[in-house]
Batch of 2 targets.
Target 1
Amino acid sequence: MAKKMLLDAYHGKKTIRAPWVPYAGVHCAFLINEPADKMLQDPELLAKGIVHTARRYQADGIPLVFDLSMEAHSVGCELKWWKDNVPSVKSHPCSNKTPAEAGLQLPDKNSGRWPVLFEAARIARPQLDELDCVLMGLCCGPLTLASHLAGVRIFTDVYKHPEFASEVCQFAGELGTVAAGFYAEMGCEIIAIVDPVASQIKPETFKKYVTPHCQETIKTIHDAGLTSSFFICGNATRVMENVCTIGTHSFAIDEQMNMNFIRDMALKHKVGFGGNLKLTLALSLGLISPREDAIVSLAAGGQQGYTFSPG
Amino acid sequence: MADKLTIDVVTLDSVQCAACGYMMESIAALPDDVQEMIEYTEWSIKSEDGIARFKELGVQVLPSICIEKDVVFPSIIPQYEELIDEMARRAPNDAMKKRIASLRDVGFQFDKIEENLAKAGSGMATRTNSKVRK
């Protein structure tokens, strides 16, 4: 396991091999034979899960959690819990009012499940240090968080009610910045903004509602001397130029993207990049061999700024 | 003649994947009058049933919304009016077409999302051997 190699790759540098990050998430719960909902609300189990997973998979880095409901829950969104999945957001306080009208306040360290994460990080961090494995913090990106706050209407509002959409995305950006500060305080050396729904919009919408509302978060990460990334899911082809120029040290994509295209985009923009072992086709379904899929990704990714990870 | 419009939402998993979740919600948040005219199902690619439907519909990217077996919103979460227009275009009869079109200015409604998602089996069939309830 190799922290420095991972940090180098995230900064777009050459490495002697591609470092490896399993975005294990609730799979950690499966590995320690606990339900996901229980692990995500119990700091000791959460720490146990990520340390066990990092050791088992010989990870160079591992996220503390991969749960994009953290920020929304900490400002009052209700959750539906699942035993084998992450919680889903089931209420949207801004579905008919702005964050100010809804009385939303930025969270503190005692809000929502942040105390669980602080305690889990306190337990896990020294054990991960011994494994030479980076603890990663993942913040919910502004558009995904705006969707949690306002519901699916946000995708209509960006065209029909741009002032409302801007207000919600502005609050989401501020909330993401608070989360980044929390992750920095927890000792996460890499902090990623994770905005999966940002692949479902046009480039001009990304430029107006995603890019500006990530800037304070990125500044917070960089001012703390830490490494930044931007994770996006789905078919992000049309917004890849926006992703590469958003200002983070690196980005990561999922299995729907072509790794040769992604590598060339990353090299052109001199940023690190991660992906894209096929989560469904190889890891979940076994329709293609995970081993051969890994070889294809590793060959395409190369050793300049590349991190091998699921997509 | 069919008296309901069929909508298939092909996803990775609407719980795990936010884009998939909001694509499902775009249908679940349609107003009651529209809900009466549609039948919709989540097909997670994690299940064998989902893979079969993915192939049958000719879906190329996830998530995608198909209306009457046409892939209409591939990797784009639709605006309300876009959804209404595409549903009206594919309505099985003129009466339904007019009725759907008349609801263009109503907008999303969020009070029955959980109930509507449950009806569509959202998040319930995400294992390899899960059977999609139709």
Target 2
Amino acid sequence: MKKIITLTMILLFGTLTVQAQKSMDAFEVQVDGLGCPFCAYGLEKKFKEFKGIKKVAIDIETGDFSFLYPSEKALQMDAVIAQVEKAGYTPNDAKITRANGIIETSSGNTTVLSKESVVVSQQLFAAGQCGMCEARIEATALALPGVTTAVWNKENQQLKVSYDKSQTTIDGIQKEIAMAGHDTKAHQATSEAYKNLPACCHYERLEQ
Amino acid sequence: MRQLIYGILAISLLVGCAQEAKPLGWKYTSSIAVNGVNPIGIAAAADGLWLSDGDHFRVVKINEQGKITQSIDSLDRPMHIAYDYGELVIPQYGNDEVMIYNTNDSKHILPFIVFDQDSLDAPAGADINGNEIAIADFYNNRILYNKHNLDKDWWISFGKEGKADGDFYYPTDVQITQDALWVADAYNNRLQKFTKEGKHLLTIGEDQNMNAATGIYVSKEQVFSTDFENDRVLVFDLDGNFLQELKDDVNKPTDVLIQDGRLYIANYKSSSLSVYDWGEIEVLEEAQEEHHHEHHGEESEKS
């Protein structure tokens, strides 16, 4: 009899543990503007206002920020983005993996290819100097309809981009990146866009 | 024979005179690994160095080999610490408290600052000097200073967000000297000097293309600034003239300290301290005239 009770207790405890683990939503946010521990801890500090937040992790180099939050509180994407902005940073992509398996994203690549699509790969210069620049340049390119991949190399400041020629152009991609604050050979960022970059992203301007 | 000796002496003298003395400066000597520690702030005690380890919620004391000899745990993101006569001041970025830890009687941890209606928001740096204490209040873009033993009626506050002289854009460190307060104005990429009444006196380093001036240290003759993103420490004289760039084995530096004539740089990223000593240095010919100086390695300029 004692064995049956013990076994039942173990099973019950195990079930409750699994349920508890499943009842957390997972949040992943790519944040623009982190560069040092002061920024990273600052973001963490502002998210402490969300009572019940768990497993907060921040990668200073890439700006990847993640945490778990009780699913019964149904924290929404808008609230997460607003909190990142309140902390003084700019959210790029955000993803929520709900406890029930449903995935929500704030943005991302929406390119749909068709029979007419002609995908080509090309390299272009995009000025930048840090992990935050990398995240912003790639996210900006990927947000353009027609762009399928974008990988920026910090060492040579080259962006390798694949895109559907029927939907966008290399000039259009460069224009968009310049609007985000990064000089390209074809288009220079405005002073305002450059000024609005986080301090750690203030690269040497191109002379054009 | 005598003529031969005189001749050799004369030639030796001429050769000696022809050799130009090398300039003096800070020269990389060695690095100390502090395994498992991502140092942010550094402070000197008689028997070791204190390092704040914000990533691991603690402050540790290390010996000359980098081995941890004492640890104060369960802190909430401790940042730029300070030490004076047995008292370790620990600003905690995560919970808006600044503590004085009495290292002579380790039982006592005294939360001493409570701003009832005027809360700190992420204290990033503090300094203590006798009866004086100063705090860099990161998100409030201001410096708090008290010279009367923490008497609550004697706090002064100065600074606001901005880019003009006297403004701050996220200050991260502060140091008290005999006649001034020095501030690492981190995201304005510069240092600033103020009177103890908060009047702006000097701005340093705006022409050096720093990228996050996260830490400051002032000796009797020099001012040091960490340039976090550019992996270097810049050295200025007290008037703000650039003297030297230190880059050897510097990796995401956050703070600087001189102890017993040696310069220690805290490297957040590489979990290490870079050690520099004062002596003759090699400089590029074109830079020699500009950077030549005769300063000596002196320890912190306290009153």
